[in-house]
Amino acid sequence: MKCYYKNIVPYVLSTCILLFAFINLTFSQCSITATANGSNNDTIYICSGNSLDLNSTGGCNQYLMSNNFNDNTVGNGWSSNAQPMFNNPCVPSIDGTTYLWIGPAANFPRELTTIPFNVTTSCTICFDMVYAVQGVQSPCEGPDLPQEGVHLQWSNDGGATWTDINYWPPNGGHDPTLTNWNNYCENVPITGTNIQFRWFQSNTSGPVYDHWGLDNVVITCPQAETVWWTGVNGFFYNNFDPLAFVPTQNGWYTVHITDGNYAGTDSIYVIVRPPINISITPSNPTLCYGQTSTIITSVVSGGTPPYTYLWNTGETTSSITAGAGTYTLLVSDVSGCQPSSASTTVSIFPQQIT
Q1: Minimal CA–CA distance to 34: which of 271, 272, 267, 269?
Q2: CA triple 269-272-277, angle to 5 deg
Q3: Stretch 209-231: mean pLDDT, rounded?
Q4: What are the C-alpha distances in Å from 322 to residues 268, 311, 343, 347, 348?
Q5: Interior CA angle at 152 toward 150 and 158, to 5°?
Q6: How would residue 351 be classed by pLDDT, with cut points 50, 70 and 90?
Q7: Fewest C-beta atoms under 10 Å: which of 222, 269, 271, 283?
């Protein structure tokens, strides 16, 4: 879970923003997610000498409304003439919690209307919606005629006139997309003050027909934010995505975001796998006259044991018996990083002429 922070004078209060079980009006939140080399794991490994590519995604939003109807009411910030139900009478909800259902007790036209908000065209309205299946027994009888669907609308004159943002026609009442919960996100098409929104069903065949549900309504507006990175050995970068660089030591890299009041962070711990070091002893040995071979042994350190050995002669042990010639050893470890190599030459001491 990401944690978010608000500065409270004269002390700092740290708190995690949880999913509220009731409606919330006008609160803010900043969230940010860090990735490194395409991974958002909390810890990543990188081979020595390879580059690290840090990235982040996120933003700060003002939440004008966040309503999941889990308190079994329409909630503050809403009005409705439709006497909604809150006993989950028909399809299961997406998250197993309570949803708002427009059932047979509703008048019509049926509507759910918000209080006025100050909005811009960068704001969005997201919500879950479902239609009941046509022909099923009330309260789960669905809309089927083209005019019996639900409109999402806005008004800037106190509800005297309304303009469609979108409309979902029932498509005969058996459309599998409409008769299952779906999440819809719509851009707010107007900038202004005192803007209201409503979900509106203008036509029905009667109170026991054409039912539908709504859940998890969220109206958000993005806020200006500042983003920066900090990290090991004084690392600092002022934006979302630093240029790739080669780290030389293990450590934390943290991305920060704030809109001046709220803040969020996310961190990744980077482990730099050490290179494999190889030495061969004795180094470049010489065979005495009459001596046909000697034992050469590798000494390996660094990397991530266990090691895998491969000589140019085909042997796969750390030590081999070597005659005259040049011998190259390739050592790999379990990290998958680049293998390391070392060579030595065995020569023959020339015969002394008397």
Answers
A1: 267
A2: 160
A3: 96
A4: 48, 11, 12, 10, 12
A5: 120
A6: low
A7: 283
